[in-house]
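RECORD TYPE: inverse folding
INPUT: structure tokens
STRUCTURE:
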């Protein structure tokens, strides 16, 4: 025989079980997101990733930071790379299978300037890499034979940044020119 207290507890338990089984009303929300694509025409190329040396500390002595075409980063002297965010420049293009492509650069060094000032640094020693093309010649301009049946090719570009002693902190930007000649 249940006592009055036990009866109330049993009723409350049954009520809680019933309430737990009830679903809360659903709330829906809509949203929009951007969609982009690049359609490449034959005998063209476009940038995939920008050349980015990442963050670094400038010491009391000058130094350099180098990004290789394969994405490795090294430094010398007072330039100390910190964190990630560094990438070689990457480009994609389209030609035809077995076609020769000459890749050349404008004269170096390139000067980059602090966004909120007049301080500069130099970018020099640009190095061109390739994949999946087969390298034919290693002179400037670099000549490559397109090795993919689709005619699509990729190449990357590394360089060396010259960092001055006690270089002023900030974001430095500049531009460089890459020229492709399809033979």
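DESIGNED SEQUENCE:
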């Amino acid at each position: 025989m249940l006592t009055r207290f036990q009866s109330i507890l049993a009723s409350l338990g049954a009520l809680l079980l019933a309430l737990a089984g009830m679903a809360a009303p659903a709330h829906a929300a809509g949203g929009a997101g951007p969609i982009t694509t690049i359609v490449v025409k034959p005998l063209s190329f476009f940038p995939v990733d920008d050349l980015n040396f990442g963050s670094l500390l400038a010491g009391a002595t000058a130094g350099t930071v180098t990004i290789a075409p394969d994405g490795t980063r090294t430094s010398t002297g007072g330039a100390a790379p910190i964190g990630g965010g560094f990438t070689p420049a990457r480009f994609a293009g389209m030609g035809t299978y077995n076609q020769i492509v000459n890749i050349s650069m404008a004269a170096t060094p390139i000067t980059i300037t602090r966004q909120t000032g007049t301080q500069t640094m130099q970018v020099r020693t640009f190095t061109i890499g390739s994949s999946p093309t087969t390298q034919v010649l290693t002179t400037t301009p670099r000549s490559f034979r397109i090795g993919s049946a689709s005619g699509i090719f990729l190449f990357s570009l590394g360089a060396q940044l010259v960092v001055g002693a006690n270089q002023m902190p900030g974001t430095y930007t500049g531009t460089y020119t890459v020229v492709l000649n399809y033979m």
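NOTES: The chain has one helix and twelve strands.
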